[in-house]
């Protein structure tokens, strides 16, 4: 017998697979959790509850459910779960990616949006992006006729573009020297490790009594990485402060570290003061957050274009038109005249969203979503990989067809349309997307404007590997080796 009162107060959880004791549904996730959750959602529905150990995780797999969490109830779900990666590799939850919703996060977000990623600031750094792009394209020209690992070239280029804007480019070198704290390859390894450790499912986060054992060794690795990044940031901050002192009253901020340090001296905000520790945490966000994100998106776009010669032919038509038959490189102010390029980028991000489950969101209080009770402390994942393939919203969802974005109503990729969410939406939306898109658009355009690309002997375009490697960012499993052949007048490469 259940009393009427009990019936009325009984919680209604979203449907989901039956969890096993202790581990919950963790055994159902590997190797690619977004695809496993996509398949489970086909059975249990657009809002689904699973158990990660003893933790409750709710997964949204349709545009409608994404809108519920990221718009209708955005204020409730704009936090992050307190995972070990945020503690050890996010400056004890002070970096923006992992910081819980609250005064520090609001302050950090305001700083990013009003000081760092304003159109004026981004325009003022355009000359850096142009110089770095030229260096990148000239480097490819020098390797004409030889196979290049495109991923490595792109990573080097995105790192120097972002690091010159964030902290000037003097802290790395090809090899470790007295003046460079880490070599470029060491720094790439640190970024890779950060991406891996921020995307892993760490058992200790979800089965708390196992935490002390660190069964997978992830926390040990996080601590090693924390110390490496901290040594780097300490050096960078100390160097910037010394130069600021030297300049005295004549000091003018030259990069984002300068801007953040200047803001840390501002005592006028009654709510939060930006400590030096917080400055390090925010600089930390910009480096891995800015490099691998844009680079991996470029990589996916290049793979797709090479697999689709018809797409390449149409892109070339557009490139030739805006550059007057190839008299010059494509520039940022050409974008409005390049709808096909834009459609390619959207289609790439639809099929290969960089963070297929976004970064995890977290319920700050109990909330009723679409008739289901979601308890405070629930982790929420938005499966953008699944949403981008939703058969009710996309025709031939598994096909790469940029043309779909040129027909009918315009679909935005920056958070207004819940069918396409590569940057998320709402309060936690990616703050760096304007910079990311500027880099991705010009690079993809110029790679195909400046070069024909030959695949290695015996390889066909359909052999290009599209298998994913899971992490906070999901990249191609196999690095493509291809041969550049210049197609523009020689003086443009010099
Ligand atoms: C094509 C490039 C990029 C893509 C696809 C991308 C994607 C994303 C996604 C999916 C999120 C999580 C949103 C959520 O949890 O709801 C995010 C957050 C974030 N991104 Fe990006 N991003 C890109 C470029 C950048 C760049 C260039 C920067 C900085 C230089 C950056 C900095 C950040 C930061 C700091 C956050 C955390 C925001 C918060 O938690 O409040 N991103 N990005």
Describe what you observe in this structure.
The chain is α+β, with helices and mostly antiparallel strands and 494 residues long. It has a single domain, classed as Cytochrome P450 (Cytochrome p450, Orthogonal Bundle). Helices cover 46% and strands 9% of the residues. The chain has helices at residues 4-9, 33-44, 63-72, 84-89, 103-116, 119-124, 126-142, 150-167, 184-199, 203-206, 218-247, 256-264, 276-307, 309-322, 339-351, 384-387, 433-450; strands at residues 47-52, 55-60, 148-149, 172-173, 182-183, 361-362, 367-369, 372-374, 379-382, 451-454, 468-469, 475-476, 481-486. It has a four-stranded mixed sheet. A three-stranded antiparallel sheet has the order 3-13-10. A hairpin with a 2-residue loop joins strand 1 and strand 2 (55-60). Helix 7 runs antiparallel to helix 8 (150-167), helix 8 packs antiparallel against helix 13 and helix 13 (276-307) crosses helix 15. The longest helix has 32 residues, at 276-307. The relative contact order is 0.16. Bound molecules: protoporphyrin IX containing FE. The site of protoporphyrin IX containing FE (HEM) has 26 residues, from helix 13 and helix 17. Protoporphyrin IX containing FE (HEM) is lined by residues 96-97, 109, 285-286, 289-290, 293-294, 297, 354-355, 358-359, 422-424, 428-433, 435-436, 440.
Q: Could you give a quick summary of the protein structure above?
A:
This protein has 494 residues and is α+β, with helices and mostly antiparallel strands.
């Amino acid at each position: 017998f259940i009393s009427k009162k009990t019936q009325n107060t009984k919680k209604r959880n979203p449907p989901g697979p039956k969890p096993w004791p202790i581990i919950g549904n963790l055994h159902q996730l590997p190797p690619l959790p977004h695809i496993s959750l996509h398949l489970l959602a086909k059975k249990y529905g657009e809002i689904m509850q699973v158990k990660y150990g003893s933790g409750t995780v709710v997964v949204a797999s349709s545009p409608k459910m994404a809108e519920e969490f990221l718009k209708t109830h955005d204020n409730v779900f704009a936090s992050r779960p307190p995972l070990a990666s945020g503690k050890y590799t996010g400056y004890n939850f002070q970096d923006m990616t992992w910081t819980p919703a609250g005064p520090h996060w609001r302050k950090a977000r305001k700083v990013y949006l009003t000081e760092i990623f304003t159109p004026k600031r981004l325009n003022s750094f355009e000359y850096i992006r142009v110089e770095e792009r030229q260096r990148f394209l000239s480097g490819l020209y020098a390797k004409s006729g030889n196979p290049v690992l495109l991923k490595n070239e792109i990573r080097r280029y995105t790192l120097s573009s972002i690091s010159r804007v964030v902290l000037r480019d003097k802290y790395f070198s090809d090899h470790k020297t007295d003046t460079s704290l880490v070599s470029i390859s060491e720094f790439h390894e640190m970024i890779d490790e950060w991406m891996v450790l921020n995307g892993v499912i760490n058992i200790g986060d979800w089965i708390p009594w196992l935490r002390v054992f660190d069964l997978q060794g992830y926390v040990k690795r996080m601590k090693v990485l924390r110390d490496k990044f901290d040594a780097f940031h300490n050096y960078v901050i100390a160097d910037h402060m010394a130069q600021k002192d030297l300049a005295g009253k004549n000091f003018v901020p030259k990069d984002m570290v300068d801007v953040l340090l200047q803001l840390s001296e501002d005592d006028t905000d009654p709510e939060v003061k930006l400590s030096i520790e917080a400055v390090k945490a925010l600089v930390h966000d910009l480096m891995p957050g800015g490099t691998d994100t844009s680079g991996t998106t470029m990589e996916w776009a290049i793979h797709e274009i090479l697999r689709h010669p018809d797409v390449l032919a149409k892109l070339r038509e557009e490139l030739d038109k805006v550059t007057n038959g190839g008299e010059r490189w494509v520039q940022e102010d050409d974008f409005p005249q390049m709808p096909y390029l834009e459609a390619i980028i959207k289609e790439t991000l639809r099929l290969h969203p960089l963070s297929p489950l976004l970064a995890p969101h977290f319920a700050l209080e109990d909330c009723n979503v679409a008739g289901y009770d979601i308890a405070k402390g629930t982790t929420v994942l938005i499966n953008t990989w699944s949403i981008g393939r939703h058969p009710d919203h996309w025709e031939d969802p598994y096909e790469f067809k940029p043309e779909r974005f040129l027909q009918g109503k315009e679909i935005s990729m920056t958070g207004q349309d819940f069918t396409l969410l590569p940057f998320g939406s709402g309060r936690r939306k990616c703050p760096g997307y304007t910079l990311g898109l500027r880099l991705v658009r010009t690079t993809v355009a110029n790679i195909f404007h400046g070069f024909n690309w030959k695949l290695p002997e015996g390889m066909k375009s359909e052999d290009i590997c599209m298998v994913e490697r899971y992490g906070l960012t999901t990249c191609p499993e196999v690095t493509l080796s291809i041969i550049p052949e210049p197609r523009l007048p020689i003086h443009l490469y010099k």
